[in-house]
Amino acid sequence: MRFFQRGKKGRPSQPAVTKPSGTQDALAVNMNDNLQKIQNIYRDCIDVIFRSFKIGGHTSAVLIYINGLANMEEMNENVLRPLMEKNSDSRQGASPTEQLNATSLLEQQLTVAKVNKVQTIGECVQYIAAGSPVLLIDGQSEGFALGLSEWEKRPIEEPIAESVIRGPREGFIESLETNLSLLRRRIRSPLLKTKSVTLGKYIKTQVVICYMEGITPEAFVTEAEKRLQRIELDGVLESGYIEELIEDHPYSPFPQVLNTERPDVAIANLLEGRIVIMQDGSPFVLVMPVSFYSLIQSSEDYYQRALISALIRWLRYLFLLISLLLPSAYIAILTFHQEMIPTTLLLTVAASRERIPFPALVEALIMEVVFEALREAGVRLPKQTGAAVSIVGALVIGQAAVQAGLVSAPMIMIVALTGIASFTIPRFTAGIALRMLRFPMMFLAGSLGLLGIMLGLLLILIHMASLRSLGVPYLNAHVPNMEHQAKDVLTRTPWWKLNARPRINERRRNNRQS
Amino acid sequence: MAIGKKVRRALVFLLVSINVVILGGCWDREEINDIAIVLGIGIDRVKNGNIRLTVEIAVPRVIGSGQMGGTGGDKEETIIRSGTGVTIADAIAQLQERLPRRLFWGHMKIVIFGEQAAKVGIREHLDFLIRHPQTRTRCNVFVGKGSAKSMLELIPPIEQSASEVLREMAESRTLMRKTAKETLQTLNSEAETVLLPMVKVLPPPKGKKEIETIPFIYSTAVFKKDRMIGQIDDYITRGVLWIRDEIKLAHVTARVPGERGNITSRMIRAHTDITPKHEKGRWKIIVNVTSEHDIILNGTKLDLLSERNIQRIETELEKDIKRRMRSALDQLQKDMKVDVFGFADAIHKKYPSRWRHLKKRWNDVFPDLPVELNITVKVRRPGMNFPPQGVPEQEVKE
Amino acid sequence: MENEKITSVQMMMLLYPAITATAILLVPGVTAQHAQQDMWLSPIWASLIGFLTVHITVQLYRLYPKKTPIEYSVDIAGPFFGKFIGLLLLFFYFHVTAIIIREYGEFVVGNFLFRTPIDFVMGAMVFVCAVAVRSGIAVLGRLAQILVPVVILLLTIIVILVFPDIELENMFPMFENGLLPSIMGAATPQSWFSECFLMAFLLPHVIDENHGRRWGNIAVVSIMLTLFFTNLATLFVFGNITASFVYPVISVVRYISIADFLEHVEVVVMALWVVGVFLKISVFYYALVTGLARWLNLSQYEPLVFSVGLLLCLLSNWSANDLVELTHFLGTTGSFYLSFVQTVIPLFLLLVAKWRNRAASPQPAVSHQERK
């Protein structure tokens, strides 16, 4: 048990991050004191604007915002104009020296939908940083944070990393609010709950845990919250950071968290009782807990016809094995079990290897490493240069290497097939895990033949069987409730027969259809 | 702390794996270019009782290697090497000395025993073949007329090697086929007799080199215990196959009395039952054959649409098959006195307790054992035509 | 001790390879020597011991719930004799596990990796098993549930592939010398069936323990059917020469040839058979290590795993000089040795326990518990 168990046990959990001095101070009644403090905090920040003006021509006030994060037009129309007008209705008859009533101001003059009251300097800074302009009025011990933040964002586009032929074309973007709205727009039930956690010492990224009340076991939510709160990083730039920090076994090659760009995938997982973790600034949301099987399934499996999807799943399982085992099986058969291949094929392969200087293992290693490099080069390069890489790869490495007698033609085929096989796995993270494990398998095959491959496979399986994702066994989908899950793992049973929701932990609301 | 431990563990694991690779890499690993793939072997007996082992080794050749330079051309696809020794294993040791690559037996398809070796006994050699963990129990066993080496040396015009020719021929089942396993099984059976296909060199057509021809199965060698005691021709062999229920391919030609011309039929399937009977202290064997045929040639003027004609033909076919079986029985039972038909096993299976007494005097009983042959032939289809072809309509007999 | 759980189905999936994995190696050959063409019948006789052992094990477990033989032997036979019996069981499992590892090593080295040192082959396997055993019973259960269906599927495919080569004639004459030879032939397989006693070490971890008996019996039946079919297939292919093979089943696989393409598949079979042996060794190893931890009253067994593994490697090296000695031991003394420790001693424990229960309380406590 303990052998593979990795916890965050060693990491002490402290509550909040340390804050700059003075931020805990309450807002003073004298506006200038407050203004000074905030100006002090934001010294040397040219993008922070302090706009002073007089309400109704007498009470001084200041509007603080960050240039580019607030909607200027609305600020002009709905904040500055009504407040600066001298003869506003509410001020009728009141003496100029009379104490300005903040509540009435809010109720009668600020035509802004979302207004939060702020009590401390710290809160002010937080809101300003988040793009909400803060209105401070002289003589008031509280300010108003106006929900007028707006900045440039990417439009909702088709997700590139997970493309489908049939299915919704929307993808998450970098804005948390938009992403949440994408979920809300489809799940109209109030049972969709969203809990917020703020991460990062400087960056203060907002992270939201989404779950379906009544479907998701509460244990998942509390455990995920606990793990998120333990995170102490200067900044969280991508959900990959969070993924790494809340995984159960960080040293495993297998991803224990699913990341997706697709709202439909997130929703499907929510409805199956999993939690979705969203992070501001990243189009990738995290899904937990996951089993290995959900990492090698595609959302499209459920959109296409059941029979076809089942066949495609089998194809994927087959190619999954190929991507892991083909090079090692080739080595094992060629150097240990030559009797396994038909005589004529053996002779052909032997003939093509007759002038190759390397042993099969070395040959395979060279070619696999070269292939990985080509793939990596192709991914990172701009599209225009990418084409050049593939030409170089195909022509130079492929054909020339064979003609120069450095590698044998069957080896090229094996490498190509392995490459294609690893691309059939829809999740990049799962595919790369198998690609990585291919190399130790090749060494094992080179030392013990098929027996070595089997021992390696067993070790991988033992490891996978002892993995847990958010406390749920990684191979759960297959075990322990075989009958239920076999329907959705071994095949893809039509929706009308797929009644039971995957039983992750608790027995509750287990029917999808009523 | 915890992480340090983890790293240490990972390092240990890495070291162990590297050791595994470095140490383990050299025990059983054998590159494909370091093995000599044996396709077939021949076992001959030479002077002073030694064994000469001849192996046919495949030479890997680049296929379609035209532009790759001189490797193509008319180089042979196999090479022949021989070694001698007291036993096969001995001979292999000597053979290995003369080869740069290690012999690999996993693809061995055939074994040919030279006539001399077969006459002395094949048990010892079979033992080696079955015991060796690389060789296949499925390899086909033959006896060569003359020396086994001369068979393997041939360069067949179509197939890649002489071994391949013989394997294909055996698998086509026109005559006998025996794998090493089957040979051992019949050797271990109650009658302790074996039939092995016999091969000889097909004389090459004029203008071709002496060696550019193939070996072919032409008769059958008869073994008592593990020694070859004689041989039977192809006609008799088919008779034996009929009785042993091993006939797979047969054409039967018959003449219908009162008609001119022949009728040939092709056997579709046949089944033989051997039933021993013990009546009044005397043993008797009843052989029931049922077989189904298609007519493939009709040289008579009989119209095959007529049920009466078909019946006449069936009777004649039955007679022909019976004749074959009878001549097989005459030669093997009466003259050679070897039970290659499986009668002993039939009795053993049906009357296990009586067999125990009978077994001791089986060699005396067998030659005089009455055998009753009942043959039923069914002609299922007349081929593509009913009436005989090329015969004026009025001459066709219904 | 760990409180990880498995289901009763997983228990069955662990028991199945724990018996069949090696029972299809040397056993058919030994059985054929005695039973000849009646060898197909022997597994059925042998399975009777299996049912008996399952019955005894379950009865004992009902009397002493949540306890393994190491603990209830103390309850039954008193602290001294109880500990002694526990030690006996531990030494027994130590020895048997080593023998299994040796069987595995002999098989691999004798058939596939001729020049690889047997210690290396065995050591690699023990290492993999040790990792699995350390991961706990739940992981073993999960592995079994994934792997055993694959193994069964493979066996089925092999039997189907053998079809073109079978000769039903080989079965006759049936019962040439009466039923006795087939019963004699059951002597060796019955000792394998007595290994069902391993259930006793698994039952405390089973969630739905009241299904334990059912799945135990299903395990026995499925093992019996497997041996029945493999023996039958072997007999149909090899007939009178079956007894002459050391590993008849592998020789059958070797004989398979479909359309000149699908041949020489025995390496694949070996590779998948390794999976079965892995589970077998792991179950025995697990029983041994947890038993040892319980015997020593340790709270964890994990620290023992690797040290015991090292000892197992050594003992497997000493357990026999050569394959002949190993086969001879398994064919003769071994049969009685295994079933004595795993069936007779538990039977004796059960009788004492029942007698003590009856003596202790006038109320029929036993039947009360049985009603559950």
Q: Provide the helix percentage of chain B.
A: 25-40%
Count of spatially separate domains of chain B: 2
Rounded average pLDDT of chain B = 82
What would you call the structural class of chain B? Answer: alpha/beta
Strand content of chain B: 25-35%
Uncertain parts of chain A: 1-21, 89-97, 477-482, 505-509
Please, how many helices of chain A?
A: 16
Strand content of chain A: 5-15%
Radius of gyration of chain B: 28 Å
Number of helices of chain B: 12
Strand order of the largest sheet of chain A: 1-2-4-5-3
Keywords (chain B): Germination, Lipoprotein, Membrane, Palmitate, Signal
Family (chain B): Belongs to the GerABKC lipoprotein family.
Subcellular location (chain B): Membrane
Protein name (chain B): Ger(X)C family spore germination protein
Would you give an account of this structure?
Chain A is of the alpha+beta class. Chain A folds into three domains: 31-146, no CATH class; 176-290, no CATH class; 320-472, no CATH class. In chain A, 45% of the residues lie in helices and 12% in strands. In chain A, the strands form three sheets. In chain A, strands 1-2-4-5-3 form a five-stranded antiparallel beta sheet, sandwiched between helices. In chain A, helix 5 crosses helix 8 (263-271) and helix 10 runs antiparallel to helix 14 (409-423). The longest helix of chain A is centred in the last third of the chain and has 39 residues, at 428-466. Chain B folds into two domains: 33-62 and 75-233, no CATH class; 250-398, Nutrient germinant receptor protein C, domain 3 (GMP Synthetase, Chain A, domain 3). Helix content of chain B is 34%, strand content 29%. Mean pLDDT of chain B is 82; it is low at 63-73. With 398 residues, chain B is of the alpha/beta class. In chain B, the strands form two sheets. In chain B, strands 1, 2, 3, 4, 5, 6, 7, 8 and 9 form a nine-stranded mixed beta sheet that branches. In chain B, helix 8 crosses helix 9 and helix 10 packs across helix 11. Chain C has one domain (8-349): Amino acid/polyamine transporter I. Chain C is 74% helix and 1% strand. Chain C has 16 helices and two strands. Chain C has helices at residues 8-23, 27-35, 42-63, 69-111, 118-135, 137-162, 180-185, 187-193, 199-202, 212-238, 248-255, 266-295, 302-318, 323-331, 333-360, 365-370, and strands at residues 257-258, 262-263. A two-stranded antiparallel ribbon of chain C has the order 1-2. In chain C, a hairpin with a 3-residue loop joins strand 1 (257-258) and strand 2 (262-263). In chain C, helix 1 (8-23) packs across helix 6 (137-162), helix 4 crosses helix 13 and helix 5 (118-135) packs antiparallel against helix 13 (302-318). Mean pLDDT of chain C is 83; it is low at 364-372. Chains in contact: A-B, A-C, B-C. Chain A binds chain C through residues 1-4, 336-337, 339-340, 342, 448-455, 458-459, 461-462, 465-466, 473, 475, 478-480, 482, and chain C through 2, 4, 7, 9-10, 108, 112-113, 116, 121, 124-125, 128, 131-132, 134-136, 138-139, 141-143, 145-147, 260-261, 263-265, 267-268, 270-272, 274-275, 278, 302. Chain B: InterPro entries: GerAC_N, Spore_GerAC-like, Spore_GerAC-like_C, Spore_GerAC_C_sf. Chain B: This is Ger(X)C family spore germination protein. Chain B: Residues 28-200 form the Spore germination protein N-terminal domain.
